[in-house]
């Protein structure tokens, strides 16, 4: 009965791995949550079962969001009814849309193309079909 | 010692009994019945997702949503908890050498709440998903399904509190005076740990359920933002119960492995002390990590860090269990009978599930995996890969004790290979699906994502293999409990030496081995 060296070494190795994982994610998350000062605000509103977007200049879009390459964008995420989750999987943009709360997520696309937008929190009947698309275009101006 | 089915008795004698072995048997049989019912729903879900855009098997998304909701509720509350309680009822009084549970009638009452709660869940067939997040469950979920679910869970919650009280009193107050607490076998320790955890964790969800109900009735607005409430409050109350509940589901299964492994490795347990320590540690640290389910709800950086540390802190204790198992098996003359196969398979999958869990708890990676099929694969690796493996192994292990007969080793082999193969194929693939970005709880997925289609098909075939392996289990349970060869009760598994069941240890110095 009782511990011996092998078990202490094992626990030590496990703790060392965990410390590495913890410190590394602390560093990365700190960086991820640093929102660039010039990020343009996009209002994202979730409701059963579609996304609507409002650009800083007041332009509104439904389901399809057009953004420019090389700019930083800060999403302000709202929900009109139940909990949803705003997700652009290719850009790791992911934050819940909670009614009564305003949540944030930001990203800065550095390549053009069309990317799917989806809901990642179960929100009822057409949750599976609450999809949209993000179109990143070259900045011509 | 009582052998339950050896002398046939009319079924009502078992049903209306308050004896711990009878109640244990009822718990286990009910739990297994619900396992098969929940399994049928799982097969429907997987088969439905084989092709995108098909609506042959499940024709509308409401039905699909109801099916995955009831599948989850069934497997967690009507399979995992009752089977742990059943085996606990059967063995804990024997292990602490008392004639029965401390409160036999309370025990029977706690059991009979299970079929009632189960009936409410199944007849309601709610579509809220098992987490029933507000405000969906308040303002959108159709009644009476959601209300029946709330009442069903309420009853099951009370049942689990009653049985927890019973276990705690039985172990602490009724154990034989010659048996010091540190010598109590580790399975009984696991039941005591989870019982104490249930007492602390469950009230928070019990309160949340009442608040959900009054919100639904429109007389309060705790979680309803249009009435000034906050859905995040529900999430906190819910996960404060259900993250510890993860350990409540898990630890009995680990305790069962502690029962199986030393015997079939024909070696003393490596360390009783480190097993007890790891159980108590998990019991405490289990309460420090509920927030990792809520990283993406707008939680601030500091809170996330705190919950990440709390989550990672549970890993060394889990690792100590794995180490204890491996060190016990090291150099042993292992007899790979069915219980040992399932225990070893369970440890392997427990390790992979834990490794995946570390990635989940790392904050930036959680934003990739949260709410996707990764999480589905991860928690099923725990629930099927670890918990069900432990339970199934333990049921094979107790099979001769309960029935006086032997199961078919050949069928048990088929069951083991199918279950291990199926679990790896379906749940590892679901991890990959999550990395591809497929959200969980979806009725359909776009056909143009060919990688989603392929991975779903691989997962579905794995699920079929997993499901088919349980047919072998069913034959073993039904046919061989009545017609199997009579077991050699002194040494049913041919281990040799001084083999004994826990109850055969009359001398306190033998209990810790």
Description:
The complex is a heterodimer of chains A (141) and B (513). Chain A is an alpha+beta fold and 141 residues long. Chain A folds into two domains: 1-34; 40-137, Cupredoxins -  blue copper proteins (Immunoglobulin-like, Sandwich). Helix content of chain A is 20%, strand content 40%. Chain A is built from one helix and ten strands, in the order H-E-E-E-E-E-E-E-E-E-E. A five-stranded mixed beta sheet of chain A has the order 3-2-1-5-8, with no helix packed on it. Chain A has a five-stranded mixed beta sheet with strand order 4-10-9-6-7, with no helix packed on it. The termini of chain A are far apart. Chain B is an all-alpha fold. Chain B has one domain (19-511): Cytochrome C Oxidase, Chain A (Up-down Bundle). Helix content of chain B is 70%, strand content 0%. Chain B has 17 helices and no strands. Chain B has helices at residues 11-15, 20-48, 61-95, 104-124, 136-140, 145-174, 186-217, 231-264, 272-285, 301-312, 314-329, 338-361, 363-369, 373-403, 409-435, 450-483, 508-511. In chain B, helix 8 packs parallel to helix 11 (314-329). Chain B is globular. The two termini of chain B are 21 Å apart. The chains are: A alpha+beta (141), B mainly alpha (513). Chains A and B meet through helix 1, strand 7 and strand 9 of A and helix 3, helix 5, helix 9, helix 10 and helix 11 of B.
């Amino acid at each position: 009965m009782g511990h011996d060296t092998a078990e202490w070494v094992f626990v030590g190795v496990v703790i060392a791995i965990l410390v590495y994982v913890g410190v590394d994610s602390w560093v990365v998350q700190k960086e991820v949550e640093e929102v660039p000062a010039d990020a343009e605000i996009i209002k994202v509103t979730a409701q059963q079962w579609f996304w609507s977007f409002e650009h800083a200049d007041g332009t509104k879009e439904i389901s399809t969001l057009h953004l420019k390459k090389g700019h930083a964008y800060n999403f302000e995420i709202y929900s009109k009814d139940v909990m949803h989750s705003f997700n652009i999987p290719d850009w790791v943009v992911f934050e819940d849309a909670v009614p009564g709360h305003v949540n944030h997520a930001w990203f800065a696309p550095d390549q053009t193309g069309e990317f799917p937008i989806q809901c990642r929190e179960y929100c009822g009947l057409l949750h599976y079909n609450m999809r949209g698309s993000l179109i990143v275009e070259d900045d011509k101006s | 010692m009582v052998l339950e089915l050896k002398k046939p008795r009319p079924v009502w004698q078992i049903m209306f009994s308050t004896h711990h072995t009878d109640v244990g048997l009822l718990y286990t049989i009910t739990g297994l019945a619900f396992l098969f019912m929940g399994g049928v729903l799982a097969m429907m879900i997987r088969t439905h997702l084989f092709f995108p855009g098909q609506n042959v098997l499940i024709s509308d998304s409401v039905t699909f949503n109801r099916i995955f909701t009831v599948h989850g509720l069934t497997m967690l509350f009507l399979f995992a908890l009752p089977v742990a309680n059943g085996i606990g009822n059967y063995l804990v009084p024997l292990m602490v050498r008392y004639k029965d549970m401390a409160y036999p009638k309370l025990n029977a009452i706690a059991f009979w709440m299970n079929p009632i709660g189960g009936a409410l869940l199944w007849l309601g067939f709610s579509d809220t998903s098992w987490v029933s997040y507000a405000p969906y469950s308040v303002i959108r979920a159709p009644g009476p399904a959601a209300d029946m679910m709330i009442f069903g869970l309420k009853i099951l919650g009370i049942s689990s509190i009653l049985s927890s009280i019973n276990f705690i009193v039985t172990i602490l107050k009724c154990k034989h005076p010659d048996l010091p607490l540190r010598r109590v076998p580790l399975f009984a320790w696991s039941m005591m740990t989870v019982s104490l955890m249930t007492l602390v964790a469950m009230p928070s969800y019990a309160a949340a359920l009442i608040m959900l109900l009054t919100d639904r009735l429109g007389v309060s607005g705790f979680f309803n933002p249009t009435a000034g409430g906050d859905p995040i409050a529900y999430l906190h109350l819910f996960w404060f119960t259900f993250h510890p509940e993860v350990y409540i589901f898990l630890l009995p299964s680990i305790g069962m492995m502690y029962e199986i492994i030393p015997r079939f490795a024909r070696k003393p347990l490596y360390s009783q002390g480190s097993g007890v320590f790891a159980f108590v540690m998990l019991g405490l640290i289990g309460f420090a990590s509920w927030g990792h389910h809520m990283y993406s709800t707008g939680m601030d950086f500091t809170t996330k860090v705190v919950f990440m540390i709390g989550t990672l802190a549970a890993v060394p204790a889990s690792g100590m269990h794995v180490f204890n198992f491996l060190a016990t098996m090291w150099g042993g003359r292992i007899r790979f009978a069915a219980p040992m196969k399932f225990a070893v398979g369970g440890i392997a999958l427990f390790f992979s599930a834990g490794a995946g869990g570390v990635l989940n708890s790392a904050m930036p990676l959680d934003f990739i995996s949260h709410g996707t099929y990764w999480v589905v694969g991860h928690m099923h690796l725990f629930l099927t890969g670890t918990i069900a493996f432990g339970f199934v192994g333990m049921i094979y292990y107790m099979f001769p004790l309960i029935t006086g007969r032997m199961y078919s080793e050949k069928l048990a082999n088929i069951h083991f290979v199918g279950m291990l193969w199926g679990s790896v194929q379906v749940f590892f693939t679901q991890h990959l699906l999550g990395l591809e970005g497929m959200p969980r709880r979806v009725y359909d997925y776009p056909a143009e994502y060919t990688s989603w289609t392929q991975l779903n098909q691989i997962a579905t075939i794995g699920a079929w293999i997993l499901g088919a392996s349980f047919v072998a289990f069913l034959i073993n349970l039904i046919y061989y409990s009545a017609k199997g060869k009579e077991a050699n009760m002194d040494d049913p598994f041919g281990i040799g030496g001084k083999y004994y069941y826990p109850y055969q240890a009359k001398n306190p110095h033998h209990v810790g081995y």
